[in-house]
Design a protein that fits this description.
Largest sheet: 6 strands, mixed
Length: 303
């Protein structure tokens, strides 16, 4: 039998395996819901392409030739691998598996973002999630370069080349030592903070906190006393406990307690948080996360 150079199609393998299983072209056709002539024709095509007869034809049915027996396992393996591959691709397309890279600017200790990630992980256990701390400028650059899928940032402004959606608000809290004169207040006003010393970190979100303090205290005609410390957030709060100065933080951060530090809300102060992503990002897991975030935000607003 002369071999052709035409490629083998999936239906060739399916028809071959069905005929081998049933020992009959007629029964294979019934099982697959096609005409017997279709089974016979496609298997003949397959034999032409392989250059060998796969079945011995008899009046009562068919049986595999030696070549057919040799071809049986590779055909099964090929279909199984293709089936597994298609299920993986379909799962990725449905956002059930995959990889998400998330830039964060808020604490994951509590609040909207913490609950969103917890719920998403429970419903998408096969999606790997990597988190990246950083300042907004670096996050936005990484999003535009497709190095991050999404970032959750403060503010409401539109970003060139990016999509944004407002999700939640967090109250702003003052962090101060436990023995501070203001610790008997239920909430703090900016007037209470005039002339006080503040400390901020030199890493994110230190610069943003410094800019925030300058803006708020300048409205009172004050030139704020702000000292930058070359430490991370944990050590910054330890310095607060030691009396080095006050600082401010978002509501989600207050779920983590530090010895000697107390938190009080600043009256009327909230921070908006938005999701930011590239409009060119087609990651299905990202779409699922954004859908979950919008649903959670809607539920929170109407809760």
């Amino acid at each position: 039998m002369a071999r052709t150079t035409q490629p083998i199609e999936l239906r060739h393998l399916r028809y071959f395996l069905s005929a081998a299983e049933h020992g009959s072209f007629r029964k294979a056709a019934g099982a697959m819901g096609v005409e017997q002539s279709a089974i016979s024709r496609r298997i003949r095509d397959l034999e032409d392409r392989l250059g060998a007869s796969l079945f011995q034809r008899r009046n009562h049915g068919v049986s595999l030739t030696h070549a057919g027996e040799r071809f049986l396992q590779p055909a099964r393996r090929t279909l199984r691998q293709l089936g597994e591959g298609s299920r993986v691709v379909e799962a990725i397309g449905r956002g059930e598996t995959g990889h998400l890279r998330i830039g964060i600017f808020s604490s994951l200790a509590s609040g909207f973002l913490a609950e969103l990630i917890r719920a998403f992980r429970e419903s998408h256990r096969s999606v790997r999630i990597d988190f990246v701390d950083g300042d907004p400028e670096n996050h936005l650059a990484a999003i535009r370069q497709m190095q991050l899928d999404v970032a959750f940032l403060t503010g409401l402004s539109d970003q060139a080349g990016c999509e944004t959606t407002l999700l939640w608000f967090e109250r702003v809290f003052l962090a101060m030592p436990g023995e501070h004169p203001l610790n008997d207040r239920e909430q703090i006003t900016w007037t209470d903070l005039a002339g006080r010393r503040f400390i901020v970190s030199d890493v994110a979100p230190g610069q943003e906190i410094q800019d925030y303090l300058i803006q708020r205290l300048a409205d009172l005609g004050q030139h704020p006393d702000i000292q930058q410390q070359h430490v991370g957030r944990d050590n910054l709060l330890t310095l607060v406990a030691h009396g080095s100065g006050l600082t401010v933080t978002s509501e989600a951060t207050t779920a983590v307690t530090f010895p000697g530090v107390i938190y009080r809300p600043i009256a009327g102060e909230t921070l908006p948080f938005s999701a930011v992503w590239s409009r060119h990002n087609d990651n299905p897991a990202l779409r699922r996360l954004l859908s979950a975030a919008r649903s959670a935000a809607k539920k929170q607003r109407h809760g």
